[in-house]
């Protein structure tokens, strides 16, 4: 397997990650030391062990998602993963706010704290209840998804204006475009999409899946 995702930890957050990967049909391997469930793509082992990461194909993986329950372990796994594959994208969960900087220093590209996100959602629920309801709907609904679609050189969307991409007719909306590290929110209909862009799209899970499939088969 190559260009796959490795998920470290198969607890509550790890399972949610795997569910999302399965819905998006993204190839992945799970690493968990105490998992009781038998799955073809699950390796029973310690992600802090170099041999276990190598068995999971760390050198050929595209990204590693670290959802272990201990922040110290997250730091160590980030360091080990970065050492084994300098190009891999590392996303880690941090339970403690003070751990986030340490995990970044260990090599993570993105560190997410469920507690920080939860606090912001609670504050938003008080100040902007309809906005909070929208975010909650997008987060937990299985029929609605916010997806990231990368535009390759041979994509049918490369060189097209948003108004000519025929996404609205399928109930898909482009919320933002990432270009060269810059976020462009709510791009206008005349916006010209280029190879290398990443589109942040909102729509039904079914239509998102169809869009991903068409892009892969170009």
* Sequence of strands across the biggest β-sheet: 3-2-1-4-5-6
Strand content: 15-25%
Give the helix tally. Answer: 7
**What is the terminal separation in angstroms?**
21 Å
Tell me the radius of gyration: 19 Å
Number of domains: 2
In round numbers, the mean pLDDT is 87
Low-confidence stretches: none
Helix content: 25-40%
Say what the CATH topology of the largest domain is: Rossmann fold
Q: Count the E strands.
A: 10
Q: Any guess at the CATH architecture of the largest domain?
A: 3-Layer(aba) Sandwich
CATH class of the largest domain: Alpha Beta
Q: How would you describe the shape?
A: globular
Structural class: alpha/beta
Reconstruct the topology from this structure:
Elements: E1 5-8, H1 12-23, E2 28-32, E3 42-44, H2 50-55, E4 63-66, H3 71-84, E5 89-93, H4 99-105, E6 110-112, H5 114-127, H6 129-140, E7 144-150, E8 173-179, E9 182-185, E10 198-204, H7 205-216
Parallel strand pairs: 1-2, 1-4, 2-3, 4-5, 5-6
Antiparallel strand pairs: 7-10, 8-9, 8-10
Q: Which structural traits does this protein have?
A:
alpha/beta, Alpha-Beta Plaits, 2 domains, 22% strand, globular
Can you walk me through this structure?
This protein is an alpha/beta fold and 218 residues long. It folds into 2 domains: 5-112, 3-Layer(aba) Sandwich (Rossmann fold); 143-216, Alpha-Beta Plaits. The protein has 7 helices and 10 strands. It has helices spanning 12-23, 50-55, 71-84, 99-105, 114-127, 129-140, 205-216; strands spanning 5-8, 28-32, 42-44, 63-66, 89-93, 110-112, 144-150, 173-179, 182-185, 198-204. The strands form 2 sheets. A 6-stranded parallel beta sheet has the order 3-2-1-4-5-6, with helices on both faces. It has a 4-stranded antiparallel beta sheet with strand order 7-10-8-9. Strand 8 (173-179) and strand 9 form a beta hairpin. Helix 3 runs parallel beside helix 4 (99-105) and helix 5 (114-127) crosses helix 6 (129-140). The mean pLDDT is 87.
């Amino acid at each position: 397997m190559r260009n796959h995702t490795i998920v470290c930890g198969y607890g509550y957050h790890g399972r949610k990650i795997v569910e999302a990967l399965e819905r998006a049909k993204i190839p992945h391997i799970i690493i968990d030391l105490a998992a009781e469930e038998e799955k073809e793509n699950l390796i029973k082992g310690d992600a802090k062990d170099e041999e276990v990461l190598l068995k999971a194909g760390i050198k050929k993986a595209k990204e590693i998602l670290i959802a272990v329950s201990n922040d110290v372990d997250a730091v160590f796994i980030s360091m080990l993963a970065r050492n084994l594959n300098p190009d891999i994208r590392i996303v880690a969960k941090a339970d403690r706010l003070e751990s986030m900087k340490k995990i970044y220093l260990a090599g993570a590209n993105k560190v997410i704290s469920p507690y920080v996100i939860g606090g912001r959602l609670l504050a938003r629920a008080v100040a902007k209840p309809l906005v909070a309801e929208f975010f909650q709907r997008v987060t937990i609904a299985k029929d609605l998804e916010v997806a990231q679609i990368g535009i390759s050189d041979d994509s049918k969307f490369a060189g097209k204006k948003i108004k000519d991409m025929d996404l609205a007719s399928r109930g898909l909306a482009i919320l933002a475009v990432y270009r060269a590290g810059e976020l462009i929110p709510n791009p206008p209909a005349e916006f010209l999409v280029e190879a290398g862009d990443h589109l942040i799209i909102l729509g039904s899970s079914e239509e998102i899946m169809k869009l991903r499939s068409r892009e892969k088969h170009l």
